[in-house]
Amino acid sequence: MTTYPVEEKKTPIEDKGFFSSDSDHETGSVDTIAALVQEDHSHEIQLRTMSWQKAAWLLAGDQVCLAIMAQTWSLSVLGWVPGIITMVVAGALFWITSITMHKFIMKHPQIRDICDFAYYACGKSSIAYEFAGFMLLANNIMLIGFHVLTGAKILNTLSDHSLCTVVFSIVVTIMGIVCSAPRTLNHVSFMSMFSAACMGIAILLFLIFAGIEDAPFYGYGGNYPTLGAVKTYALPQAGTDWVACMNAVLNITFLWVPQILFPTFISEMERPQDFPKALAVLAGISSVLFIVPPAIGFHYLGQYSTAPAFGSLGVVAYKKASFAFVIVPTIVIGVIYANVTGKFIYFRILGRSRHAHSHTLTGWGLWAGLMVAIWAIAFVFAEVIPSMGDFLSLLGAAFDSFFGFIFFAIAYAQLYRGRYWTGPGRSLMTAIHIFVMACGLFLLGPGLYAAVKAIITDYSGATSPAFSCANVAI
Asked: Which stretches make up the Amino acid transporter transmembrane domain (predicted)?
């Protein structure tokens, strides 16, 4: 059953310019939000219960992830100057587009997920809704599959490949299904606290170990000292091709594009008006963790940097000690994506029936079935796709171009139609959102091309068979 979001009556919102406060944009929606919260709190299972503090933990749990440890490799490809510039620009655009997204949702507070967002941003287009739904399912389930594979890598590394990799993948999948039982993000936020903390410990241990060991060991171009003494450089090294640089840029960009989840997070806040507070916490954490550890890692690993950077450590004990903590965020982030994905399907099936928000056998049975199905499909993807990382780059270029850029440029156009150049601040923001749209289109063009080229290169060599027991330890 297809259920498109229902429009609510709202007081028109007055635009007071770029420097208006969030409350200026929320005034017309306060009554609608209060009604939505009141309706939700009359249910047995209440979703709109998160405080902004718990939302901040949820955001941190999603963003403080293993991908941070891939940024050292990006710097080793791009060099200091292009790499740091890309990180800073990506961070700035993340903040601006997220605020635009929040303002748009405050105008349409009935939005429950990114599909609803696309529906309203594209003028209540059912085509946009279905297209966004397809992208959400493909992107999220593949991403969960990547976490299944990552979990298997961690267990392989820690156990010295004591079991078949497929067995480890099954173990991770079962753990994910069990942890996905909670239906509210308010409960998942508790897991996120431990997830972010464990990833923080892993990063800290890596930095300590990278600093105290004599030299790294493994590098893509050869083990130390094949490529000479460790060195860093301002610009890409001679011989670095355009595809490698583009993939490094994509690697940085996709770390800053988690907004596919944000509408669902906002929809489960008791006061969605407070989301910018949670976003500010995330922005502060991300500004440090997305730049400082990769920079320190590049300083110590140089041209021997790998993705993730743990793989370059020379002492096996160091590698295991730091990589072990990543198992927690690997599971929890998969749980977050499974929750958002499951809710999209869940509410499409049950709509506004009592099973959707009550402790009924039908409701819980469907939820359990969805979690099993989502993780099972993700497990299959993890086992049958030879180069999961490159396929994620392909999906990222194809889908994150919309979820991180294009949809928000369109939403901005909807918010300020006819008022794009009404003052210096508004003109600046309009110009920035034109640039945002250009970035999205760039990802769809050259970005997609680079991702496809990387896949072709991988397939030109030896590929792993499906459901292989081969050791995938780092």
From this structure: 49-450
